[in-house]
UniProtKB/TrEMBL annotation:
Its EC number is 3.4.11.-. It comes from Zopfia rhizophila CBS 207.26. Its cofactor is Zn(2+). Keywords: Aminopeptidase, Hydrolase, Metal-binding, Metalloprotease, Protease, Zinc. This is Aminopeptidase.
Amino acid sequence: MASDRDILPSWVKPSHYLVSIYDLEFGGNFTYQGTVTIDVDIKTTSGEKWNRIILNSHQLKVYNAALKLEDGKTSRDAKNITYDEKRQRVTLFFSDDITYSGRGVITIKFEGVINNIMAGFYRSRYKPKGDVPKSVAKDDEFHYMFSTQFESCEARRAFPCFDEPNLKATFDVELEVPEDQVALSNMPEKEVKKSKKSGFKTVLFDRTPIMSTYLLAWAIGDFEYVEDFTRRKYNGKNLPVRVYTTRGLKDQGRFALQNCHQIVDYFSEVFQIDYPLPKVDLLAVHEFAHGAMENWGLITYRTTAVLFDEKLSADSYRNRVAYVVAHELAHQWFGNLVTMDWWSELWLNEGFATWVGWFAIDHLYPEWNVWGQFVTESVQTAFQFDSLRTSHPIEVPCYDGLEVDQIFDHISYLKGSSVIRMLSAHLGEKTFLQGVANYLRAHQYSNATTNDLWSALSEASGQDVNSFMDHWIRKIGFPTVTIAEEPGQISLRQQRFLLSGDAKPEEDETIWWIPLGLQTGPSATEASLHKVGAFTKKEDTIRGINDAFYKINKNLTGFYRTNYPPERLIKLGEAKDHLTVQDKIGLVGDAYANAVAGHGSTTGLLAFVERFQDESEYLVWSQILANLGNVRNVFSDVEDISNGLKKFALTLVTPAVEKIGWEFKKGEAFLIGQLRAALILSAGLVGHKGTVEEAKRRFDLYTSGKDRSAINPSLRKAVFAISVNNGGEAAYSAVKNEYLSTTSIDGKEICLQSLGRVQTPELAQQFLRFIFSADVAMQDKHSGTIALASNAKARLELWNFIRDNWESIIHPTLSGNLVVLERFLRFGLNKFASMDVADEIEKFFKDKDVRGFDKGLAVVDDTIRSHALYKKRDEKVVREWLVAGGYIEK
């Protein structure tokens, strides 16, 4: 057994499962019965005796178990069955010592519960459209569908198994379900038999390829589907591609369907391996802890990540659906066909699927400027989390499967994908993808490590990839490159970037391989790449620089911050119209981060973004508004500075919001619509009079029922938020009613985000009680807290509510699924900038069992304290700058 991980004994390995689920109770306790038969290989040393077999099992009741060995002589029942709840294991004891090495079959009968915590085999509630079969489970208000979520270690909640990623096996699944409902699994139906139970049928599915337990899936419900076929042929056939929904929603799956068949064909070409299963099913699940799950052949999605209504959905969800569909399809190869050896290498699955998901969307929608979006969303978010002391390496040690849920985070996904983008840019896209194809071919249907990927890429490129990527994967953090200028040359220094700005020598020992992407020339339009390639020392000097213009990290392909001299930042601002969208995003993001860390200043950031009043690109505005919003959050309890920053923001956005207007024009570019929505929301929240008045006018028409077309679907978030921000209890109640009555797939998310703009403690408390009512699904409880946390008038009320109701409401409601609890706390508490509040939070959780969300609390603490240091350091100079600019009256 490896000393760095707690895994099952290695001498018993599964090769095949038959999982039978039957006698489902469709109400009351929602129990079910099950039998699992597992073919195993037993490999012991000669003459070694054994009397027990250990499997994973969690919250299951095992009735009995039997072991039959292939020698034909040994068939015995387990005489004793014990549970290790903490390690989620069951041990089957046999009475006599056994001396045997070879094949065997374990048969276990058990009982489980179809739970309501979005893990294992669980139930999702929904309000149906149309007539529903009487067999569908329901209560007074909701109907239920059943589905599974087994990643990372939740298959053991559904059936006893060897629940580790490198213990791959094949699976046969049979489900006993009502005759008028649909059963789905990874593979197509093989046979449908009449059940002994009246009104039921038993559905058997074809055998799966060899795969990990976390990729097994099944679902039962009142489902319907829309269907298309791949254009490529696979084994001589066009593969069926379907989007399944509960009754009445299937037409909202057409956009995902349109993307799905194209992406399956595209990835089959790119990876040089045909999609390996006979079907692709996408299933919309009404309650879902994550965004989606890549179960092989039966991919499950949160409804807002797979359904899109052309008439009623906000256009931003079009982008989301396209990307999430692509991300999960990438996993069908990268993760499912080839699986990481252990959870410490989760990034191999998630980092690559994130990058190649965007790669596919860029192929389908080049007009969306996908890589600009990647830079402002993925790269900048990864920077934010990796700039904390509480970050972790991309490849992070993971002692047991119970620790892994907390590394499904922005480091594994977003930093992982960012360094893959950096490597692809360095090797060249064609070479990189050839190396990936070679890696997949070499390890298909088995497990692999990071070094296996590096070996394949090294062979394809002729470069020693491991030598320059090892630190990026196995070391914590990332560098900032500080530049000093002299005539005709620049000096570079790399150091670890921390948000707190106080990296100690022992925290700053890593020397990263940094692709410089250095451009220089007489002007931005005439600049060319400098011959220097990578920066691999702590300090270096680059000669042959044209002082008129230079810039490093072209298109922000390198995962590092840049700290320019103040005068150079001004010159780059003057040249902004000749820079790419990615370059502008990078400059704004770096100026903000350097201000927080103390490498630069807030005044430098404000002076820099002041030049962007005439900016026309949505993605650049998105970065500016996000960073300016963060600065305003930090200084929100310093009244004069808060008011001055609000006035500055108003001055900044006014020309742009007045130019773009309210009306969506036919044939208008997707990004123009996104810009309109962002500018109206921002302008309204900082008090732009015309925007506020128009938002209130449209809101009244919409909520009164006089004109439901008064608000474009893409402007609901902006109009609702502005109205709640300005309209008090009446507007709050109107948006709450909209939440309760909306039939739009994205409507509930949008309403919760808008309700978080309440401006009084009383309404904040009222909203929090509503969040924890039965009206708000478990999957959505964090949506409202994100807005509350960003709202200076409500932030403290949120913390008070968590503290005062921890034992009675928060922990009992959310702790069944620690992913949900961690996310709620991290999003809800990370916007403070007060050492006192950080101390309060630390003290409150000090004596509590925080395993499963301790890393989230550490991120909260680090973020708050870093922002508090920043506020204290820059408060005086920010005030002086705002006074000098007329944003604060003397």
